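Open question from group meeting: does this chain pack into something compact, or does most of it stay loose? Before anyone orders reagents, we agreed to write out a predicted structure and look at it together. Recording both the input and the output here so the notebook holds the full record.
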Amino acid sequence: MARKKDPDMGRLPGEAPPTQSLFGWLRGRFFAGMVIAAPIAVTFLILQFLIGEIDKRVVPLIPAALNPETYLKYAVPGFGLIVLVVFLTILGAITTNLIGRSVVGIGDRVLSRVPIVRSLYSAFKQLVEVFAKDNTDQFSEVVLIEYPKPGTWCLGFVSSAARGEIGAALGHEFLGIFVPTTPNPTSGFLMYVHAKEVIRLGMTVEEGAKMILSAGLVVPEFPPAAKPEGGSGSRNRTIVGK
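Structure tokens returned:
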């Protein structure tokens, strides 16, 4: 009777692991180091680019008396970003009072009536409000939906329950599911699926995003590691069948 192979290791029980050449060992360590270093390097380069672009556009607008480059022989990296953050904070503080809200309301009505401009303005305004809104229901769950055909499943994120005209047409038991693409999760499509047709997963949205970004190579631990009782990191796995 043939011995059953170990499914995890791909060899028979008791069989010695295959020997690895020096080149194979070095190649494995090189790629392991690259996996660790690449995300750090890419993050650093993106931040460097963004800070440089902000400094390039903000620093020339600062009066010479307030610009540290006037007194120093070198540029201060990130000074434009600091000025921008302070400016936006002051702007937010001003526009939250009665007078500021009135001025913003007038500007909003003017821009909403200008042809062409109103389409761009309203679209960007809604997009910013979606990301700035403190709404815990936005992308709060990772789910599996049967797509593109029966028997095949894909990961998605619950955006919200069907409401408005869509809710009236389909029913409020339908859920808006955003299905991102791999490896670029910023693109994808929106589907409305009945709540009974989805499988709700216990993984966090961050873990689901990592799984999509890695094309399924990074899989979150299951069952999840035990958390201290009452801790915010605890998760419950609920599966809603058909």
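Observations to bring back to the group:
Strands lie at 142-146, 153-161, 174-180, 188-194, 198-201.
Confidence is low (pLDDT under 50) at residues 228-242.
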